[in-house]
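A quick aside before the break. I want you to see a complete sequence-to-structure record at least once, exactly as it would be stored in a machine-readable document. Don't worry about memorizing anything.
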Amino acid sequence: MKKMLFVYNPMAGKEQIKNKLSDIIRVLCDADFDITIFATKGPGDATEIVARRGEAFDYVVCSGGDGTMNEVASGIMQLEKKPICGYIPAGTVNDFASSLKIPKIMKRAAQLIAQGTVFRCDIGQFNDRYFTYVSGFGAFTEVSYQTPQEWKNALGKAAYFIEALKHITKIKVHRMRVEFDDQVIEDDFILGLVSNSVSVAGYKAYSKMDIMMDDGLFEVLFIKSIRNPLELQATLNALLSKKFDCDRMLQFRSSRIKITSEDDVQWTLDGEDGSVCKQVTMVNHQYALPILCDRKIVADVSEKYAEEKNKRGEEL
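That is the input. The structure line, written in tokens, reads:
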């Protein structure tokens, strides 16, 4: 039998897994998995159990929100022998699951684990920590971990925007030096997102064909300081149209980024507190996380898959 460590966060989202756990376990048992179950009790639990025991299992399956998925992936990244990862989303927004089109219905996500294909997804490193889909700073990025859990449970995505409205007049400007490839850019920024994801905070910033989640590259979007209402309107229009050609925006792709700030900057990693830093180095680890997905979805987000199809002369 295939050995599985099943790690779940009983407090994620609306605590819906409490009523779904038996259905999930039944699906996985029917697929001949030998399952060890671990319920997290607090921050860091998932990383600790996966790093300590993960190599003894063929599969590590996570059920929770993006924060729990981050912890499991961080644990897997510490292992020399990496188990195959599965994700059953149970959080409020579930950006990482959205990008990979993992079903929000938990029983269907469990069935995908039993029947899916392995996709080797990129993982981002942030100094000595990891992120699965986004690291960010500035306007609105603090909302996800400042919003009370009970708000998230009751209001879903609306809770993030309610909290954001409380901070809209307090957006801080950071003077930064951004280094990538052979370029160096110095400017004042109010927002920065370094991502490997179609969806960030429920906002689909890119069309699916723009994002390849195994190409070894981050998608980077920085917004410069807004000096007047016209610049604000132009920036909002660019965000809504997803055409980031506004002169208050900086967009690029890179596998390695170094950011140095003149002051302390509060970062978020996958929607959770990422600590306060003045200097950050981010590195994209290509093909680092083996995760189960629908084969049809892999075709949309895999550069490797597209290249293989081109070699065979198949139509994309």
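Two observations worth writing down. DSSP finds eleven helices and 15 strands in the chain. Residues 2-122+287-311 form a domain with the Rossmann fold fold (CATH 3.40.50.10330). We'll return to this after the break.
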